[in-house]
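Cross-check.
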Amino acid sequence: MQSSVKDKHYTPEEYFLLEQTGEIRHEFINGNIYEMSGASRKHHRICKKLLFIFEALLASKGYEIFIENMKVKIPNESKYYYPDIIVTKEPQTNDNNYVQFQPELLAEVISEFSRNKDMVDKLIQYQKFPSLKYYLIAESEKQQIIVVSRNAEGSWQSETFDTPDASIALPALETELKINEVYNS
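Predicted model, tokenized:
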């Protein structure tokens, strides 16, 4: 669960300075900053699995995979979020050392406390990325991944995977994700 920090309105520059010098991560939404809460062992375990799987599947195809501490900026808005996983082919520049602008896949590992924000607020915001092809929402307390994907016409559709032998096709990335690899300890 996030809580708003103080009643101060921050500029993006003040926010970046706070993030670079502070010990606590914050998301930035229209001048307001929100402290990020801690995560469970299950959450971290699933994030690490997704990182390792995507590294193995996509790094050789030119993708870079970031976990938890890299931000994304919502296009044309003053909003910065910390997805759990970012997959991108965005070339490194001086502008994207701390924030990515062209994600192709974003993933969030959700809990009871983050469910509404990740499944509603972040879904709406993440769909604004023209580069985004997939948004994965992985449950931390049960074996289930919801995949929200952009189809050929540009519309969004979702599919839920919850059987141990399920394979999640990610054709735009020319790969597939096996759900049992994500949830096996």
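The two ends are 26 Å apart (CA to CA). The mean pLDDT is 91. Passed to J.P. for a second look.
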